[in-house]
């Protein structure tokens, strides 16, 4: 039986640039580095960066992305820091809770989101998506 999400591995084309992005800009804890990778973390998240020079740095056309939790009191400062660093935005927020959608240096789609599943479900119960069903 699955008990949770273990880790995320992202292929990157420039390891020092990506370590700097995730550690210095997003402030993930840097746990280990080696010639072709790095481990970073947040409470409940283990992120592996893996050097892959052949990875295209173009964002995928689909909606797949990774969302990080940010507190409401920290949201505006984070968005300001990301914009000041010239981070590219890829979408406007269209759902419950404050969100900022941005790209990492390799075009991985990321989101900083205020809220959780409970707040999302509460908003959806008030205004459900087309065909939405809820389960106990």
TrEMBL record:
Protein name according to UniProt: Fosfomycin resistance glutathione transferase
Origin organism lineage: Bacteria, Pseudomonadati, Pseudomonadota, Gammaproteobacteria, Pseudomonadales
A Pfam family assignment: Glyoxalase
Start and end residues of each VOC domain: 4-115
Superkingdom of origin: Bacteria
Entry keyword set: Transferase
GO molecular function terms listed in the Swiss-Prot or TrEMBL record: transferase activity
Entry-linked NCBIfam families: Fos_GSH
